[in-house]
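ingest -> fold -> write
write: protein_1
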Amino acid sequence: MSKLPKNHKFIDLSDYGRPVARVIANLLKETSITPIQITVWFIISGLIALVCMLYGYYWAAAFFLILKSILDAADGELARIKKSPSYTGRYFDSIADFILNFCIFLVLWHITDSRLIYALLAFIGIQLQGTLYNYYYVILRNRFNGDTTSRVFEDKIPIALKGENQRNVNFLFTLYKLLYGVFDKTIYFLDKKAIEDKPFHNWFMTAVSTFGLGFQLLTIATMLVLGFAEFIIPFFIGYSAMIIVFIGLRKVF
């Protein structure tokens, strides 16, 4: 958890790829490769996983889903090592995640003969799950001097940082708001006071990290190789009930 001070770090179950991501970033720090290029690599990895799922190569699909998760951490690590944070990279990363997640559930719908409405509900569920985790995590990062390219409230276009183009930031921010705005507003409506209350317990953040994208991809990968592909959509629909449970726990503790 490089984004938080030591005494507020927690075991992030979705961040299992971080050690390998750091190795990749350190290997690339003296090269001309940029964090955004790493984001493109994880998009390619995700697309390969989708093709493997379509053709029933579930072990290969699992490998590329996990590789995608590792590369998803590596782009941020490289940005920190090179001291080149950017809103362009932040929004591009999130937009890519959204589109790939949507495609994953379309493929799951296709290969399991599930109903499309259930696939869409599962997709909405994982987006709300991820939004809740990110909401709590960004509150911690902002409160305890972590990096601030991610904001608790994405309500206005940020000023481009050094080395990036304001027009690109404007476009990507607008697209980000279009894709994520309703999820952000929903989670904020459900837990408005989170930003004002006491810091979250580390054990609580570890539990909520099961909503992180890395853990979601690991769950999908595991269920694929175990032959439980038809249960992935129902699982994520059902696990979305934990949103209310976690919000309730936060308010109690």
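write: protein_2
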Amino acid sequence: MTVKNATIVLALCCLSSARAAVQTASADSAISDARALLDQGKPALAIQKLQTISDAEDLRVRHLLGVAYYQVNEHARAVEQLEPAVHRFPAGSLERREATQILGLSQYLTGHIVESIPFLEQSSNWAPENGEYAFLLGKAYLQTRQFDKARPSFARMFRVSPDSAAAHLLTAQMMIPVGFEEHAETELKQALHKEPRLPQANFFLGQIALFYARVDEAIVYLKKEIEINPGYAMAFYRLGDAFTRQQRWDEAIEFLQKSIRLYHLYSGPYVLLGKTYLNKDQLGTAEGMLRQAVQLDPNNKSAHYLLGQVLQRMNRHAEARAELATAERLQGDSEK
């Protein structure tokens, strides 16, 4: 190589090094600015800043993009950034913890329940006092039918012993809304085995029995609940509900009225009282109960429908048509 060529190569190397140094400094500045924007609650601006960096594989860029996408509720994109990177962060580092936490939450929120569990487990172990991680982990265990693991998570959330009657009760309450009534029944019976006078356990057993149309069984459980917990309005309401299903109207009225005396701002007992008085042909009283139900809950389609029936029986046809039309509209809204 001639002296001239060597000089040219050296100059080019120096120029390349200088360019790399400028790019590194520019990336460092953009990353610092993006972190500041995230701290200020401006994730969308942080994303714009990070997208100016040419090295998309920079671990710092992936980390901050994952955080920013999570904050703007683009959870799938957060997973896309963090999943390939999380194990590249040093064990025990704050970056790894943050990436793990966001991955668990984002996987869960995108419906990847199985994939979310390892990350939620790590997050819950790191932050045992954090109720949100314990709650989501418990729900993830339920959705993957790992029921024995769900109970300790909910117990941690509510700070009770995982083997206590309270833990069984709380787990059952989490199971019922997601359609695991049979498993909830098992949890509730275990709770009562450990603590026979535990409030609400008999109530939920009665509610499950009603769900399966085992009305006689429901009545037994609900009466036990009232014996243990005599000020619980919902137990009186559900007991009145059970009696309406058996067309035992006078007994239904007794317990529904007690429910209202204990708590008068819930529309359910008024609707059932309206239905009961309609069946007893006490139309004026039925109208009063149903109008109270509508006042408390204007979107209660059952209340509007029953009120329409009452008004028809009273030959107030224009008012009846209006109520029945409202009920039909609300039914249509609920099906959308």
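write: annotation protein_2
The longest helix spans residues 3-39.
The two ends are 78 Å apart (CA to CA).
pipeline exit 0
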